[in-house]
Amino acid sequence: xxxxxxxxxxxxxxxxxxxxxxxxxxxxxxxxxxxxxxxxxxxxxxxxxxxxxxxxxxxxxxxxxxxxxxxxxxxxxxxxxxxxxxxxxxxxxxxxxxxxxxxxxxxxxxxxxxxxxxxxxxxxxxxxxxxxxxxxxxxxxxxxxxxxxxxxxxxxxxxxxxxxxxxxxxxxxxxxxxxxxxxxx
Length: 185
Prior knowledge:
185 residues, alpha/beta, Rossmann fold, six-stranded parallel beta sheet, 7 helices, globular
């Protein structure tokens, strides 16, 4: 899982690290958030873009999961606010209504206008938001790096499947430590 190289025009994309997601009771959230903050700090210190993606709704199509809910989903006030540990910086903000951060947003344009050729991705959940964003980044022609210790999934088997089966086909699978080391080399 070593990182071969970091492009000079890399960007960090953090998916769904927002109050309503990181406020869950999942025991790995604090460690993942700390790792994401360390990555963001390293990118900012090098003057490289940090993109904070939040989910503010859902795709309109019918699904079995949505049909199984007996009541409409209510999200409390502040649910889509960026986690405080990441907030307060002049980062790129992207709001999305689908799992992936590219569809129906200005993410590709924001990255291309800054000359970005590579994206390092982390966030929640590994098998949905992170994987969908990685797939689209790959399809848009970006070099994709997946910092596996800066992501989690409520379902461990789904996380493991994405990391071991899907991600190696989309980019380089590595750790935040390796990315930070490449940034500071």
